[in-house]
Amino acid sequence: MEQRGRRLTDAFVAALELRKHLREGTAFCDALTVLKLQIETLEDDYPEWHPAPYSFHGMLKLFVYLEVTGDSYRSLTRHPELADVFGLGQIPNESVISRTWRNRFDDDVRRYITASAHCLVKEIHNQGLSVPEVRPLEEVKQSSEETTDSAEDATEFSDEEIYRTTRLAREHGFGPFDSERAQNATYEDTRFFELQTFIGMVGCGTPQGAARFKFRRGKEYGPHGDTHLRAVKQFDPESLLKGFQQATERLLSVIQSESSFRRPVTVAIDITTIRYFGNIEGMPMVSGTKDGEGRAFKFATLSIVGWNIPLILAVEPVRESSSWDENPPNRVHRVVRRLVRRAQEHVPIEMVLCDREFDSKAVYQTLSNLDVNYLIPKRIHSAERENIETMDEDEQEVAVESASVHVEQGSHSMQFLYVPSTKSDGTAVFATNLRVSADEAQAVCRRYSSRWQIENEYKSIKNDFLAKTSSKDYRVRLFYFVFAVLLHNIWRLTDFLLKIGVGGEMEYAPVLTAGECVELVCSALLPPD
Fold it and tell me: What confidence score (pLDDT) does residue 529 get?
């Protein structure tokens, strides 16, 4: 099992290495040319004396190309220039390609090629990368459905292993939360956590979820829906966020026993919205949305991104000034300060990435005061437009402008980096307190691309872990969101422990889907039908 796990790991690493080059703007064929596949766990079924003129490594690259593009054997033979991409003297003919797949490659090699190529196709489509050669995403999805059994054989994770690992993660996550209810209460807090997990899994409202939970677990085991909501309201925001902090510390302690977070990490801060459609009277925590028409609850999070294990380290409610309340204007730099300080209790932070919503001198200075580096895209105003026009006249693609921040909280030196935009033909501007030369600017700004991970986190939280509710009580809304974030972290811890169990890591891509994890958390709580 360890060998198969390592082979799958190598396949994903190859895909993620290619994705890294593609995100940097490298053409697909150029990225494949420089790619060095890890083939120590793969066997060439042609013996050394076999007269095959094509290298094993080169043919592997050729088939990765075919799986990514969906091209036919015949189509490939019409492009002799691709031989250099694969490191081959020439493109083999159709019969050689066919024999290689059938006779030279065993099942493990074929799984390696398929897993690596399909992972890359999904990453390209999910991130919106411009790769004309890539095949449609639906073709990969259909293929994946057809080969589910093969994929299961490749991972070799038994239900018992996943169940045991998930249960371990669940126990580390639920313990720190305490509603401070009376000791002689009918139900312990853990019963409410079990019900909350179940509601999130089945994706229904509290009353229906509670009824279904009782049916599954027993009439006397689980609380009624109204009882559940009353218990949830016992968690005041401060104690709830404190419990999340403690749970995060426990999860990190498990990770740190297996790996090291001693090196400073890169984190991303963002704000997500949970739409609200009810009456807004007397609802100070409901804010307007960017389109100006919607209403939503807003939550800020700080997440580890990049090459480390993607966990959400801190959550902060966002209270904005709205036309229907008397809230003071939102001081976003205070939200940033609280998030970073909580995260620094767990890990050292080297770089903070924020989006344009955090583009302000107060945020810049707050992060500088916290002794962390920052990289934040800047809104384009008249001064930036003038600089970009000057760059165009001088035919410059990159420029660095030195500046300084002077606000009530302090002052510091910083820079504005003008680099080619990765989303359009124009120029993007980033603010940073790093000392960066013009030659380094583009490489530094590419670090911002790792923020895409936080968008995936929000999708998982909302689609896989967040229980539905129509409650107007903000305590319920906050509890449901914080608990969903906790389940996301448990999923990521479970995924990490599974990877460790087979002797390797697969970077960001999980081996256990969010939906599978939630179902397994509940399976540890609920007897089978």
Answer: 42
